[in-house]
Amino acid sequence: MSGNNVDRNEIAKFEALASRWWDPNSEFKPLHDINPLRLNYIDERAPLPGRKVLDVGCGGGLLSEGMAQRGAHVTGIDMGEAPLSVARLHGLESGIEVDYKQIPIETLAEDPAHIGQYDAITCLEMLEHVPEPGSIIQACAKLLRPGGDLFVSTINRNPKSFLFAIVGAEYVLNMLPKGTHEWRKFIRPSEMSDFLRHAGFEVKDLTGMTFNPITRVYKLGRDVDVNYLMHARLDDGGSGPA
User: Which parts of the sequence bind S-adenosyl-L-methionine (predicted)?
Assistant: First the structure.
């Protein structure tokens, strides 16, 4: 269950909040608010019905259940025991089936039974919480079938993102617990594109996500200064680097 590409302090943050994961008025309200946008973004570019999908950093299962509800066969992995327990319990209550595993993606990518087996992989709001995001992308390439789709989302690294994602979200608007994010771990789109290209992916789309503090509404658009989503497709010539 151990992995070198795991920040135990980051895991502990979400372990402490796990019981409130499915409360839409809790610290996870932003995730509840953006989940329909994320689901539509994925479903429009890689239609979910019948697809075999891996949700990396699934937490309490919010996105995993959403994708399964739309007809995907979903496996959710995370390193937090408490969020996974919450995810499994909520699945029993909702009747939505997701296969949850507590395992690092790099370990999963070493299992021949999983290599090249997924049609799509999602890794949303997770890469800014690990020491080596490029290692996650490399593992995704191994697990996807040739031509498979990868969806990532994270936070840009610039003065504006520090002001909005940390000062604004954590200290002014109290949308997130203080200390949720570390600015130095944010990832510029150019850096993400490099990770993807080196792993054998072609970037298909870059879309920003913005929040209006007056209307409290999120929307997708061209502004990638703070939050952004990226869709990439694995080269057809193989299932990623060896």
Answer: 38, 57, 78, 124
